[in-house]
User: What shape does this take?
Amino acid sequence: MISDNIAEVKDRVAAACLRAGRDPKEVTLIAVSKTKPVEALREAYQAGIREFGENKVQEIQEKSPLMPKETRFHMIGHLQRNKVRQVIDKAVLIHSVDSVRLAEQIEAEAARQDLDVDILLEINVAGEDSKYGFSLAEAEAALRKISHFKRVHIQGLMTIAPFVENPGENRDIFKKLSKFYVDMSHKNIDNVNMSVLSMGMTGDYEVAVEEGATMIRVGTGIFGIR
Ligand SMILES: *Cc1c(COP(=O)(O)O)cnc(C)c1O
Assistant: This one.
């Protein structure tokens, strides 16, 4: 079941890449396993998945010791500053850095634990009140500030697009973020590596891939409804 779903997602990613003239190897599938038991993660692992997305620090803490060593956990949910300490040594990438204050906290904890931490800046492209993230207007200033940190390394950008009936409605959101991503990469800012564009979920990942996503975060489409 889970393996069939993974195969279907991969087929759809390949088809979207073909339409866009992209190489499917450029797109990393993150299986979003939040709320799912470790048995489900193991099933996905058996089917070849190595990257898992969780939105709660506690779930990463609970599941990571129970998974094979090659498993990589991505923190994709809103991160409270008082939880930074517990997650920076367990997540390979924090997708959800939504304030300079949070980045400062990560910097301080990373220094304490003698770690380097890879992050993405979360951008609220649509400007939804219900969502975290920098607006596109403030993102460059934030990125430049965080680029001066020693332990925190920006690897790219992430967005959660609005919930829509027709995924095509999010194409403009993805296009805007993709354009900003390319603009920032051309600025060659020290300690800013624009190599990850994390966008697209179960409802809209094909459109996101067509618009340049390098990581997609798929939960329901792999593990079923939560
Ligand atoms: C839950 C979640 C996803 C996956 O959502 P699905 O619609 O189930 O694929 C992706 N990204 C984030 C940030 C999430 O919280």
Q: What stands out?
A: DSSP finds nine helices and eight strands in the chain. The chain has a mean pLDDT of 98. Residues 32, 34, 55, 76-77, 160, 201-203, 217-221 surround pyridoxal-5'-phosphate (CB under 6 Å). The CA atoms of residues 69 and 167 lie 36 Å apart.
